[in-house]
Amino acid sequence: MISAVVKRALVALAAMSFATAAFAQDFPKRPITMIVPFAAGGTSDVIARTVAEQMGIALGQSIVIENVAGAGGSTALARASRSEPDGYTIAIGNAGTNAATYTIYPKLPFTPDSFAPIAMVAKTFGIIALRKDFPAKDLKEFIAYAKANPGKINLGHAGVGSSNYLICKSFVTAAGIDATLVGYRGASPALTDAIGSQIDGVCDAAASVSQSINEKLVKGLVVGSTVRLATLPDLPTSTEAGLPEFEAQGWNGLFAPKGTPPDIIAKLNAAARTAVETDAVKKRFADLSTVAPNDNEHTPELLQQLVTRDVEKYRKLLADDAKP
After folding, report:
1. Cβ distance 88 to 256 under 8 Å?
2. What pLDDT digit, counting tens, does each position of 132-144 carry?
3. In the chain, how many domains are there?
């Protein structure tokens, strides 16, 4: 015999499940907020806006971008983790904000388990670009200059913990140089200072720096990729430039707060998949030297695997950067 208490619990559980299913079926009934962990104009911001527009069309509701800069993205992720798990607040992240940050800032108010992965939406390529008047014409000359002037070269990035910071760390480690890494509240202000020769160069993704290279506002040094980029055909790969150890291929993914109903995650995932397969996104990504996920790379499980892999990868690379 089932006791009255157990019966009431089962009825309550069934009612809750029904309510959750009904809520998910009606989702979304109002605009969705997508938190971008950096200032407007950087790689994550450009990708977020490109994808959000098409996701909104697929969902029948607009997706509003909210830029929350600070602490290499952890300010934004903390806000996202505290949001209601109802699908109306999501965040775009990368290997910096959602993996490396746990080594750099071990006392964060969130963990990888604080988020439900939705989908990977882009694959990116890291570039080192220099102010146009920097006295080195190629990577070999740059490394020689840096070794002759230890600590005097400064490279800008989007904040400690950002994917651009990881590009910087990977580059200086591979090159064996001592350079000063300067953090900004996003990739765009760092690039602005490089264009104005306020800093020597930037570590950035092709999505946000390629146009400035093509317009000769800065000069590209190397791309951490195995193949040249169509938008920057004259920019050598790290292997071609003589530094094959420099690898900087990253990703951007969408995350929701932990506890977001699976049916809503599924709807958001389907919208993200639809978005990156549209001609509009494909064209914009091509212009940005950014690549959409392959057919087998759209699932939440794949994004979770990337997070798990990169948490360990950057724990080793960034051990000396951990904050007390």
Report:
1. no
2. 999 999 999 999 9
3. 2
